[in-house]
Amino acid sequence: MKFKNTLPFALALALLLGAGPASAQVSTPPAGDYIYEGGSGALRVKADGRFDITTIGANAHTCALDGTIVRGKAKLADSGCVVSFAVNADKVAVSTNGAEQCRDNCGMRATFEGTYTRPTPACTDKAVASSRKSFKRQYDAKDYSTALATLSPVLSECEKTLDWITKDWIRNDIALTQLKLNDRAACLKTLQPLAEDAARTDDGIKENYPPADAEIFLPVVRAARTNLKLCRG
């Protein structure tokens, strides 16, 4: 069974934190919004050091926590859990002291440890939503070249911070636009990451993904099946 948003956080953090003080400093991150690995959550930091984190893991399990960062660390209220923040350019590596109480903030299949990235202006949630809205207006007006030029950069530039469902819906939209422009080869290439799942039956998707993940992924897969058939001709 596949579990989305499950990554080797301990290894990634060890590599990042072991890179030396010149590249990563335990300190309070600059105020702003940061996106969790794979677009599956967010870290919000205020100018006074207040922060909150929300993430989502496999089968819709979540984490939620907040507190105040002081010299790069935050001790959660009424808990032995200490959260550390290591800043490296536009990234923040979040780790804990390993206290069992840290798990009290999360469901079984979720974690908040890992890397959070400050998105570029074009990749914020608001900017992505605006680009998708413009794309739809252009697509509905049959201005396919402009629509493709609007949406393609979202996938290429924001792939690391888009959540997996949004990313795959965008793949479907781009592929269908490429088909409208009579570029079947490009359409198939865009949909290639979805081809393996599209070849499965609905029951096969349910067998390979946790229930909540399968429920939100099935509409994406069904669209990909249709689009792959159209692109193959």
Automatic annotation (TrEMBL):
Give the keywords, sorted: Signal
Q: Where is the signal peptide?
A: 1-24
Q: What is this protein called?
A: Uncharacterized protein
Provide the taxonomic classification. Bacteria, Pseudomonadati, Pseudomonadota, Betaproteobacteria, Burkholderiales
